[in-house]
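Exercise 7. Given the encoded structure of a 100-residue chain, write a plausible sequence.
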């Protein structure tokens, strides 16, 4: 088993105030990480992660320290909810872990 920090989009509730003093609820999202275990035998491919949108990239870098590296793990799609997950850690780190 491989212990990873999976990146996911977390929804949270925010209470804002109108100019007249009344409050209203909005929902926003931010990125966070959670610890997971993955069976190494189900990892099909590993890629350095590249963000496809400036908006997503900005949200991620607001949630994680500057210089944090991300990797995409492709898992056997028949056994998991989704076959592609983004994890915290450099591509080189995962190469070393999977070579062992």
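Solution.
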């Amino acid at each position: 088993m491989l212990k990873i920090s999976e990146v996911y989009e977390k929804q949270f509730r925010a209470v804002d105030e109108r100019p007249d003093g009344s409050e209203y609820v909005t929902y926003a999202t931010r990125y966070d990480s959670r610890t997971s275990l993955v069976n190494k035998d189900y990892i099909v491919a590993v890629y350095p992660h590249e963000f496809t949108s400036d908006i997503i990239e900005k949200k991620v870098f607001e949630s994680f320290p500057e210089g944090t590296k991300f990797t995409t793990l492709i898992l056997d799609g028949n056994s998991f909810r989704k076959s592609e997950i983004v994890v915290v850690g450099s591509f080189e780190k995962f190469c070393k872990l999977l070579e062992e």
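Remark. Residues 65 and 96 are 23 Å apart (CA to CA). Students should compare their own answers with the one above.
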